[in-house]
């Protein structure tokens, strides 16, 4: 459960922003979307490998 302490006189928008940030950090939405469709472990590994290659390629381009 996420608790956001709100002091008297504090802005509601500010408290809502804190709540949204904390909720996003928990990764609940990401996990729900991942569980929505089953993905085989081999597919997960392949995607992670492709992403790593892509990021490495970008870093090499950035250095040059």
Précis, in short:
Helices cover 73% and strands 0% of the residues. It is mainly α and 64 residues long.
Notes on the protein architecture:
There is one protein chain. The protein is an all-alpha fold and 64 residues long. The protein has helices spanning 12-26, 28-36, 41-63. It is flat. The model has no long low-confidence stretch (mean pLDDT 93).
Topology of this structure?
Layout lengths: L11 H15 L1 H9 L4 H23 L1
Q: What descriptors fit this protein?
A:
single chain; 0% strand; mainly alpha
Q: Count all strands and give the number.
A: 0
What average pLDDT do the residues reach? 93
Give the biggest beta sheet. Answer: none
Shape: flat
C-alpha Rg (nearest Å):
19 Å
Uncertain spans:
none
Note the gap between the termini.
Answer: 47 Å
Question: What structural category characterises the helix and strand content?
Answer: mainly alpha
What percent of the residues sit in helical stretches (DSSP H or I)? over 70%
Order of helices and strands: HHH
| Secondary structure tally, helices | 3
Give the tally of structural domains.
1
Q: What share of the residues does DSSP label as strand, in percent?
A: under 5%
């Amino acid at each position: 459960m996420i608790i956001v302490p709100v002091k008297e006189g504090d802005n509601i928008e500010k408290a809502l922003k804190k709540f949204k940030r904390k909720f996003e950090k928990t990764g609940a939405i990401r996990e729900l979307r991942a569980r929505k469709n089953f993905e085989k472990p081999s597919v997960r590994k392949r995607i992670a490998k492709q992403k790593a290659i892509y990021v490495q390629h970008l870093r090499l381009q950035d250095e040059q």
